[in-house]
Amino acid sequence: MAKSITELLKSGVVIGDGGYLIELERRGYVDSGSGREEVGTGRGSGQFTPEVAIENPDALRELHREFLNAGSHVLQALTFFGTREKLNRAGYGADTERINSVAVKLAKEVAGEKALVAGSVSRTQLTEREGMASLDKSRDHIAEQIRLLKDAGVDFLILETFFHLAEMKVALECAAAAGLPAVATMSFRPLITKCTDGHTPAECAKVMADLGAVAVGANCEQDPKRMLPLLREMRGATSVPLAAQPAAFRTTEECHSFTRLPAFPDDLETIQVSRNEFIEFGKAARQEGIGYIGGCCGCNAAYIRALARGVEESNKRL
Ligand SMILES: [Zn+2]
User: Fold this and answer.
1) What is the distance in A from the centroid of ligand 1 to the CA of 317?
2) pLDDT of residue 47
3) What is the pLDDT of residue 31?
4) What's the burial of 286, exposed, middle or buried (CB within 10 Å: 0-12/13-18/19+)?
5) C-alpha span between 168 and 248 (Å, rounded)
6) Mean residue pLDDT across the chain
C-alpha cells in the first residue's frame, strides 16, 4: 500500500469505500431522527450522527472489514457530522474528542497496512440554519475536528457533503493549515446545476483545486448516472483527478437529490439502484477522468465490490 493519497492517485484509480451511516441505520445502530422531526431540512437535532463509534464499535469495525474485503483502498473513519456543533445538538457534544479519536482508531485497526485511513469532515449545518454570517463559527468547529483527526493519525481528509462552496473553502483552508492532504467533494441539491450558494460544478472544481485539494468532485445525493454530467463539467475546469462517491438511490428529472425526495429516510428501499449501475460507473472511471471512486449513502460492500470489478475490467482493456 502506498504511503500517501497523492502516491495512490498516481498509481491508478483509487477505490474508496461506501456509505456508513445509512447502512448502520439499516442495521439498527444509527438514529435517523425519523418520526421525531422533519429530516433533510438541515434543522434536525440528532439524525445520522456518528456516536455508533463509541456505542457499538463492533458494528462499525465489521462494516470497515466488509469494505476492505470488497476492495477498498481507503477506509473512512466514521467522523461524518462529527463536529462539536452537530454533536452538541445530538446530545453528544461532550463526547466529541472520544467519538473522533475512537472512529479513527477503529478504521486504522482494520486497515492495518492494507488501506489508507481518511478522516471524514462534513458541513456543520450552521450555514443552512444561520446563514453566511456563521462562517467564522464553522471555521472554529471544522478546525477543531481536523485537529482531533490529525492527532488520531489519519493519512488524509475527505471533505464531503458540503452544500455551500463558501464553507468548503473554509474547510480546505483548515486542512491546509493542519498540513493534511484533502480530497474535496461538494453535494448538489436539489439540482446538479449549482450548489446552495449558487456556484456551478465547474466553478466549484476550480476553486477547490486552487485551494490545494488533491482530487475534487461530488459525493452523495445522486446516483451515478445523474452525477456524471456534473462530473464532466468539473473535468473541463480542472486538471486534478476527479473524486466521485455517488449515492445508490434513484433521483428524478425534477429533483436530483435523494434527501429531498419523499422516500428519505423511511422508504429508501423503494428507490435503491442496482449494483449493476456501479459496475458500469467503475468501468467508465478512467475515461471520465475519475481518479477516486467510491460510494456514499446506500452503498454497502456489494456496491464497492461492483465498482472494483468495473475498474478492474477497464484496467484489463488498457
Ligand atoms: Zn451520502
Assistant:
1) 31
2) 80
3) 87
4) middle
5) 24
6) 94
